[in-house]
Amino acid sequence: MTTNPNIICNLSQLGLLELSGADTLTFLQGQVTNDAKQLTVSNQAHLTAYCNPKGRMLALFLAFYLNDCFHLQFNRSLLEPIMKRLKMYVMRSKVEIKDISDIYTIIGIDGPEAFSILASSLAKLSRDIELPKNNYEFVTCANTIILKLPSIAGHTRFEIIAEKANASEIESSLKEHCQIAEQTYWDSLDIQAGIPDVLPATQEQFVPQMLNLDLLNGINFKKGCYTGQEIVARTHYLGSVKRRTYLVEIALLENSLVANSSAESPKAGDKILDTNQSEIGQIVRVANTTENQFNALVELRIESAIAGNVFWNNTAIKFNDLPYSLAS
Prior knowledge:
By secondary structure, this protein is of the alpha+beta class. It is 21% helix and 33% strand. The strands form three sheets. It has a six-stranded mixed sheet, sandwiched between helices. A hairpin with a 2-residue loop joins strand 4 and strand 5 (69-75). The model is unreliable at 256-262 (pLDDT under 50).
């Protein structure tokens, strides 16, 4: 928990790949669900899925284009295997894929005053920059990227991707007005915004629509072929989305984790059951808000979500409203 509603968070859990070369656009178009060409004509990032041939997600990227290079930001725990897999498909194409995670520091800022705090901090650092106002829009200045992210009501949220030479100065200025938050706090903000993730425990478990990627503008159905496209397109055009991701709360009995050392907290990949103890879904991502309280995104059969009465480890789950409609 934080006492100051304005927070900053070091987002070292995120990795960053840079793709460059004459054939990069063609290569990327054949790998991901969204239209990479759109990135080249605007300062706009977007979500995009990377799937296996069966349409099951291997990773979820936040992609953007800058300085003639495509950038893929995603969970750092997947960076090495995903980079290795992408390189397997480069073959003779003129594409170079580099891990640039250690060149940059990624900082998150969120709060009711985040916009003014960030603007003031950048002004003090002599950064002549107008902050982005639309979600997933970004601006650049002095080798620093400022990206606006979806936020909870009454708050504004930004991600700052700064070369390490600039990062400490920016971070020090922000700390004057913000409280430092743990990564789980940032994860909870993502969860409340309805933004899913793919983790090692959930790789190859989800078709993109199961994680609401079609509702988050993470799939382009007109861009042409890519790995897994047949399954993703069939799910869309046949109207066969049978599972969706929902925003929930999981509240354990007070002090249950303390009283029972063998008790587990919920984690990505855990199964969700109905009243008959039948498996109906799983946890996509989860973050604790207190010791015994968790926000989570869970993927479920639609009919099970409508019926209600779903459980994690015999604990009833409370459904909350997503910030977007699940009506496709």
